[in-house]
User: Fold Protocadherin gamma-C3 from Mesembrinibis cayennensis.
Amino acid sequence: IRYSIPEELTRGAFVGNIAKDLGTDVAKLAAANLQVLSDSDSQYFSVNVNTGVIMVSERIDREQLCGQNPRCFLHLKLAIENPVEFYRIEVEILDINDNPPEFPSDEVSLRIYELASLGARFPIQPAQDPDVGTNTLQTYHLSANENFNLNVKARTDGGKFPELVLERALDRELRAFHHLVLTAEDGGSPPKSSKTRITIQVLDANDNHPVFDRPSYGARLVENSPLGTLVVKLNATDVDEGPNGDIRYSLSSHNSAALRQIFAIDEQTGEIRVQGNLDFEEATVYEIEVEAKDMGSPTMEEHCSVVVEITDVNDNAPEVILTSFSSSLSEDAPPGTVVAVIHVRDRDSGEQGKVQCHVSPDLPFQLRKDYEHQYSLLTSTHLDREHVAYYNITVSASDLGSPPLSRHTILPIALADVNDNAPQFEQASYEVLVAENNPVGSVLVTVSAADPDSEQNSRLSYSILRAGGTDPGLDPTRYLSIHPTSGQVSAKLPFDYEQTSYLQFHVEVSDGGSPALRNRTLVHIFIVDQNDNAPRVHFPRAGEDSATQFRISPTTTPPALITKVVAIDADSGRNAWLSYHLVEATDPGLFSVALRSGEIRIMRALQETDASAHELLVVIRDAGEPPLSTAITLVVLVEEKGPEALQGSEARATDGGGLPTITLYLIVSLVLISTVSLVGLAALGVRCL
Assistant:
């Protein structure tokens, strides 16, 4: 059940009839033991159980209960027994215009300078009205005057604030005080209002401002001027007297913080001096805003500007910036290959900012000017990593200032290898003397080649090839092997001079490039004879452990040839030089042996007292070191079996039958050895030429 009543009703004022609104008999309400329960601490209402009427039991002040809330409610509960039932009653308290607007004070004092600008606003503390709706504060009224108008500002929450607006200039000399009345009025019926008196004191103003002797000043400074350098001295005057004519200089707040760090002003003298670094490259012109204030109250000020032009000096070296750069370059790069793109700049101006670049003319590189401030570093000739593998190119940049400034930048460039060099042997050919009967696996010669390329392109591999013009049946790989990386040529079999006295073959070396490059060298191996063969007797022939018998007549006369021992040695040279020695004889003085020919002759006539059989031990020895020898035993029988001449002739005939064949063998052997030696020497000479 809802009821609406105005605030401030007297006690006992009628609110509503419960019995009527519930549609029940009053007697039943009395019998049901009706009770009224309130949600608030105060019991603002009561119920007459005899009549069922709700009445006001206490004074209700809406502003105290709900403040500025536009709607205000009080809530009651009705309890009825037999059966138990509850009813909720809501009583809306309506506002009445029972409060006038109230100003915080009855008097307001304002102090306004006489030179306050027209349109200036001066807020007044607003009046407060606790009523709501139309009963609250609605408007203000200002008493009539010549200088001020009233402006009321409305807030979004409904509040209204009065402001005095200066419409006509004040003049303290004409009127020092102004008295106004401000009235606040609400919208009640009838309306309520209140007033406050406003007293305005017009303050004397500092009505003469300082004046500079010039509206603007100019100065010119060289960049990097020392600290404390005087820029300009300002001069301002104020016709006022006393503090109103006392002037203080300062840099305006309009100046940037950076400018304040560069310049400072003396507040007494107006001298502007340098206190920071002047850099033409950061700023060419500085415009300083200066203000001059007098000491009046309120102060008056005047502004002027100081334009400072900065003159450039050559204080910045050129800068070299690599826009593009490759630190590795293939050695087969053609001339004109771009290695780097260089950007140069100089923060100075004019001629001092123009930059020239160059590199050393001794290097295979050159600079090409693409356009202003950009150069390209190019190769000027063919490159050879094996000649120079690494370059430190110094790019020098200098400006046209006086004196000029320069900067040097080093560009390291490494040349990447290409396989452009075939391996080269240290010798065009190798000659090796190898003693026969050499041990298997012994190193005969080491061939060595070099490749000026690098890494894989310089990894060498050796192999043996058959030399042209050699005996097809004489395969060098049968006798020799070569280590593929060290080049050591080793023997796979021992050499036999008597079978092979000379061996010729090629060694080929190839690098690891792609494609691989190759080279060859010729190796001559001369087998040196060793004294490994003892002399062998060809005549007279005799079996092992047996002696050869010869018969001579007792009448044989010296120096008759008895026989000739013929031996040969398969070795050569000194090892084949044979000598014959009579080591033992039955009669040492009867026979002799020729040292070189091996002829055995009788040295004296035979006597009857001489033995009938003479045993001769002949040793054949070569000239080797150590010498080898062979021995033969001859038995000479003295018998009278025929005429002496016959015996002699038989001996000679027998000797002559064996000599021609042996001599022929010796001659043929000597010719063959001489021919092979001459052919070998001729081939070596041709190869050397």
About this structure: Helices lie at 18-22, 26-31, 62-66, 257-262, 476-479, 644-688. The first strand starts at residue 2 and ends at 6. Residues 587 and 688 are 60 Å apart (CA to CA).
